[in-house]
Write a structure and sequence with these properties.
The complex is a heterodimer of chains A (337) and B (360).
Chain A lengths: L14 H15 L11 E4 L4 E9 L5 E2 L2 E2 H14 L4 E12 L4 H18 L3 E9 L7 E11 L15 E4 L5 H11 L15 H10 L4 E5 L5 H12 L3 E5 L7 H10 L13 E4 L4 H10 L7 E7 L6 E4 L5 E4 L12
Parallel strand pairs in A: 5-6, 10-13
Antiparallel strand pairs in A: 1-2, 2-7, 3-4, 5-7, 8-11, 8-12, 9-11, 10-12, 13-14
Chain B lengths: L9 H14 L4 E7 H9 L10 E8 L1 H4 L2 H11 L4 E5 L13 H6 L3 E4 L3 H10 L4 E6 L6 H14 L4 E5 L4 H9 L8 E4 L1 H7 L5 H6 L4 E3 L4 H17 L4 E3 L11 H10 E8 L3 E10 L8 H4 L15 H5 L23 H4 L4 H9 L1
Helix pairs in contact in B: 1-11, 2-16, 7-12
Chain lengths: 337, 360
């Protein structure tokens, strides 16, 4: 805690955030359920297991191509439940509104929440609203929490990736991150850049039910991107990984925007994709099942888990070289040219 | 970007790597001047397919890295002045001065906005009529024409609250200073593609002649870089010292005359301090007196403080190829991208950041 103030970097989903969590939150609040730092907590209740998670959304701009803060808040929390193999039951909705927010905009957001939650079949069952004076917030902040049930026999965790596991990615990377960054910068790129925000629980359930026991780890690569998600799994599972750059699905316009801005798509967020670590003998089947569903039509096998050293991720580059991949450190910033 | 993948073709890369292997039959040291080259070489894992005897030394081509600590401190000091808004490229935000960075200043209430072009900074000035917008102008010949054009536009718009804090630098005098140092033993220069689009291939003629130095201008894709390295290795092997342009799709012999005119219309050469190299005559650019109304240094009466490098930090030596990041006692210990001590760790194009991210 050498720096005495909170920096934006603490919220970018990379190393600074991890340091804040372990150095402050876990220091005071740590317990066996919290300290594993999974996408959602799984709690034994005596009559089955519950998954419980919470997430806050502070996106600027509030409306963006492909979605808005409302749909993002619904999908994000549903996906965090899904990444533990849970079936989402219901959501809470907490809204912090800035004085001066237009009611018409708020209604658009609420309608978007309704539509996303209806489409996903996960209702909002409790809520809260607070208003802060102008300048003390930024239009609207949303918190959603979610509860789900974990079916018997399902045990999916970031600690369960094993050497030999095949790594699948359900679709293209960086769509959401690049859309937000270019919007914020006021840069328009030819082509159709839009956020990929969507709920993945049905997609994941189909996969888990078709291949019982074969799905070891699931993770949605949101803030910090795919590289940070893989790094966290490699660390938690005490394994290494080998990733084939040429196999990573990415849309041409996303790649072009990243080249232009000097951003590495491996560190940009997706909001409707997941990484799946699958037992080697079931990986082909898992890929077929993914591709048969609309959420996974661009799915690909991108690499495998190795013995290690723990946390070491080697990227075989498209041009035939090799290099290491680490977690995000610092805000993703465009370069000076 | 339609042709991006042709410049990353695995089969072609392998053919070029084999050819390079045959050309390099003993230890040889080439310098890649530009930070974007350094990053591309790491990002595409090129080091893993280059001949073992081919040593690539990173040069002083990362604009953030070569900016002296005094300037960084001055930027942060300006950010703390009431009613001043700093409009800066993203790279600058995390660069540490002696007491924190622009990010720290922002977290304590300073107004720091990230912009993607100097023109955005000018637009910001228009939106914030009560503030003085200061654009810290970092960068080489590639960046300068855009800043010059923005200053001319500010004059046309009569924008009174827009200023530029110039820390601009030009490449040829720095390369000359570097190569005059015999100890470095660089046998070839991978010349910067972006800068060369402006200054033209001819700019390297004095270097090639004075120091018998093979110079090859390279693009930034893996195939571009491999091809340029082959040309360098061939020259070195045959004892030639010529300028070859391996990036003809962007770079001409004369360069971009219009951009050169823009630069000389608004800026004039001054002596400038480079991190690791000290004062190099004529290597910096200051606003000409007729544009002083846009000169932040004059409007705010800024003096650049003399700052000693952080204790133990070897950025200065790393910047000029004297040592490699792992040789620095702070590397990956006290100095990480999360808490950088030296500028080579903070800039995405810094050599230390590249080694830390991709090379360890």
């Amino acid at each position: 805690m050498k720096n005495k103030t909170i920096l934006l970097d603490h919220g970018s989903g990379g190393l600074a955030g991890q340091e804040l969590i372990s150095g402050l939150f876990l220091k005071h609040l740590g317990n066996p359920v919290l300290s594993v730092l999974e996408d959602s907590a799984v709690i034994e209740t005596g009559v089955g297991r519950l998954a419980f998670t919470t997430d806050s959304f502070v996106v600027d701009p509030v409306f963006f191509p492909g979605g808005d803060i409302g749909s993002l808040a619904v999908h994000g929390t549903i996906n965090d439940l899904a990444m533990r193999g849970a079936r989402p039951l219901c959501l809470s909705l907490g809204m912090i509104l800035e004085e001066g927010l237009s009611l018409a905009d708020l209604e658009l957001i609420v309608i978007s929440i309704k539509e996303s939650s209806e489409r996903a079949g996960v209702p909002v069952v409790t809520g809260d609203t607070k208003v802060v004076p102008k300048g003390k917030g930024d239009k609207v902040f949303i918190n959603t929490s979610g509860i789900g049930t974990v079916p018997d026999g399902v045990s999916i965790s970031a600690s369960k990736a094993r050497p030999g596991d095949i790594i699948l990615l359900s679709g293209t990377i960086a769509d959401h991150g690049v859309t937000i960054l270019t919007r914020r910068a006021g840069i328009s790129i030819k082509g159709d850049l839009k956020s990929d925000t969507m709920a993945l629980h049905r997609f994941v359930q189909t996969l888990i039910e078709a291949l019982p026991g074969a799905i070891h780890t699931l993770r949605d690569p949101t803030r910090g991107g795919m590289a940070t998600a893989l790094s966290e799994i490699a660390k938690t599972s005490e394994a290494g990984m080998e990733i084939e750059e040429a196999c990573i699905p990415i849309r041409q316009e996303v790649e072009a925007a990243c080249e232009l801005l000097g951003l590495d798509p491996l560190y940009l967020a997706s909001e409707g994709k997941c990484l799946a670590f699958v037992a080697p003998d079931r990986s082909k089947r898992a890929l077929d099942i993914m591709r048969l569903q609309p959420e996974g039509k661009d799915a690909a096998i991108i690499g495998m888990v190795t013995k290690g050293p723990a946390g070491r991720i080697v990227l075989k580059t498209a041009v035939g070289g090799a290099r290491l991949v680490g977690p995000l450190s610092g805000e993703p910033l465009p370069r000076i040219c | 970007m339609k042709h991006l993948h042709e410049f990353r073709d695995k089969g072609l890369a392998s053919v070029l790597a084999t050819e390079l292997e045959q050309l390099v039959d003993g230890p040889v040291r080439f310098m890649e001047v530009c930070g974007t080259h350094t990053m591309a070489i790491f990002r595409h894992g090129l080091r893993s397919i280059l001949p073992e005897d081919l040593h690539l030394i990173s040069g002083p081509g990362c604009p953030v890295c070569v900016t002296s600590a005094g300037y960084i401190d001055a930027f942060i000091k300006v950010a703390r002045i009431p009613r001043v808004t700093i409009a800066t490229f993203g790279d600058m935000i995390q660069v540490p001065g002696t007491s924190g960075s622009l990010a720290h200043a922002r977290s304590r209430g300073a107004r720091v906005e990230v912009v993607y072009s100097p023109m955005d900074a000018l637009d910001l000035a228009d939106q914030l009529p009560k503030d003085l917008v200061v654009f810290p102008a970092i960068g080489f010949e590639t960046t300068v024409p855009g800043v010059a054009a923005t200053i001319l536009e500010a004059r046309r718009r009569k924008q009174k609250n827009f200023t530029v804090f110039s820390a601009h630098k030009v490449m040829p005098p720095a390369l000359d200073a570097l190569m005059s140092n015999q100890g470095l033993q660089i046998q070839g220069l991978l010349c910067p593609g972006h800068v060369s689009t402006i200054i033209g291939a001819k700019a390297y003629k004095p270097l090639a002649e004075r120091y018998s130095l093979p110079c090859v201008i390279a693009g930034f894709e893996p195939i571009d870089i491999l091809q340029a390295l082959i040309l360098l290795a061939r020259q070195a092997g045959e004892g030639r010292a010529e300028i070859e342009n391996a990036y003809p799709r962007a770079v001409s012999w004369e360069g971009n005359a219009r951009a050169q005119d823009l630069i000389s219309k608004v800026f004039e050469p001054v002596d400038a301090e480079w991190r690791g190299m000290g004062i190099i005559p004529g290597s910096g650019l200051a606003l000409r007196p007729e544009f002083s109304e846009f000169n932040a240094l004059e409007r705010l009466d800024i003096k650049i403080p003399k700052i000693l490098e952080p204790k133990g930090c070897r950025c200065g030596e790393i910047l000029v190829g004297w040592c490699l990041p792992p040789d620095c006692p702070l590397f990956a210990k006290g100095c990480t991208p999360l808490e950088p001590i030296g500028p080579c760790m903070v800039s995405t194009e810094g050599t230390c950041a590249a080694y830390y991210r991709y090379g360890r």
